């Protein structure tokens, strides 16, 4: 892995334009807030990209120079071009990490990576959420403590139609009684995927220090690790050992 992790913070970017509550909380956009706290870290360089930019801000040059991508989308999943999704998917298989945040559970890229509907239950009444750390030794949970409490949030509830996580870091409890697998790690090809539930657009969740710590930890966890082995199809004519007749 390089000394500096190059992060592209992708955001649909529509709510900040049209929803007053979101504009007040995130005048610089959710992507601006996320890139801001990531850029405060000495080993991370973050830039932003949004849906309405050419190629959704994800040109070949951008993708080729991205170690980890964060993805937030909600109302315009269907507007993301399939060819861009295919390029992002291939980059993940080749080693790029991706962190899908909140309503990105329904994004084209997350559903492609999961191979399921990624459906869930939801309710928006500004209830309390407690994210319990169930893998305290995991790098994503470093420095977080026993749990993270959010006083007002949107509820996501089980059943969450995703494959069994390779590693589960957080389980949420909500004031209304539901629970949810809120921090799911997956390995896809040479890449790592982290789904993190918090991040509704009308609550200042991305300004919470504990949430920022989790996302920062996840960026470091998801960064590519140089192994010397490339995930490509190679025809090997000569065996490593002699093959007996």
Describe the protein's architecture and organization.
By secondary structure, the protein is an alpha/beta fold. The chain has a domain at 5-114 and 182-222: Class I glutamine amidotransferase (GATase) domain (Rossmann fold), CATH 3.40.50. It is 24% helix and 29% strand. The protein contains 7 helices and 9 strands. It has helices spanning 15-18, 20-25, 29-39, 60-64, 82-93, 108-114, 209-222, and strands spanning 5-11, 44-50, 68-72, 97-101, 121-133, 147-157, 167-174, 179-188, 191-196. It has a 9-stranded mixed β-sheet with strand order 2-1-3-4-9-8-7-5-6. A hairpin with a 2-residue loop joins strand 8 and strand 9. Helix 5 (82-93) packs across helix 6. The protein is globular. The relative contact order is 0.17.
Given this structure, which CATH class of the domain at 5-114 and 182-222 is correct? Alpha Beta
Q: What's the mean pLDDT score?
A: 95
Please tell me the CATH architecture of the domain at 5-114 and 182-222 by its name.
3-Layer(aba) Sandwich
Shape descriptor reads globular
User: What is the terminal-to-terminal distance?
Assistant: 43 Å
The profile of the biggest β sheet is:
9 strands, mixed
Count of alpha/pi helices: 7
Q: Could you give me the name of the CATH homologous superfamily of the domain at 5-114 and 182-222?
A: Class I glutamine amidotransferase (GATase) domain
Structural class: alpha/beta
Helix content: 10-25%
Give me the CATH fold name of the domain at 5-114 and 182-222: Rossmann fold
Extended strand count: 9
Radius of gyration: 19 Å
What proportion of the residues form beta strands (DSSP E)? 25-35%
Order of helices and strands: EHHHEHEHEHEEEEEH
């Amino acid at each position: 892995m390089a000394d500096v992790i190059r992060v592209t913070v992708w955001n649909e970017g529509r709510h900040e334009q049209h929803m007053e509550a979101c504009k007040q909380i995130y005048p610089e956009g959710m992507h601006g807030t996320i890139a801001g706290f990531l850029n405060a870290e000495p080993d991370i360089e973050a830039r932003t990209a949004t849906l309405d930019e050419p190629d959704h801000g994800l040109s070949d040059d951008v993708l080729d120079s991205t170690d980890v991508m964060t993805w937030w989308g909600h109302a315009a999943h269907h507007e993301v071009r399939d060819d861009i999704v295919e390029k992002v998917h291939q980059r993940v298989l080749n080693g790029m990490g991706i962190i899908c945040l909140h309503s990105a559970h329904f994004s084209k890229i997350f559903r492609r990576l999961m191979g399921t509907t990624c459906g869930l239950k939801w309710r928006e009444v500004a209830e309390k959420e407690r994210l319990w750390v169930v893998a305290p030794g995991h790098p994503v949970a470093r420095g977080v403590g026993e749990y993270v409490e959010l006083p007002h949030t949107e509820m996501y509830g089980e059943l969450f139609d995703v494959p069994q996580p390779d590693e589960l870091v957080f389980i949420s409890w909500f004031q209304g009684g539901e629970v949810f697998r809120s921090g799911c790690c997956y390995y896809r090809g040479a890449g790592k995927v982290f789904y993190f539930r918090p991040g509704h657009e009308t609550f200042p969740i991305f300004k919470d220090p504990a949430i920022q710590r989790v996302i920062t930890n996840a960026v470091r966890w998801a960064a590519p690790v140089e192994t010397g082995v490339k995930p490509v199809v190679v025809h090997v004519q000569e065996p490593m050992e002699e093959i007996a007749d």
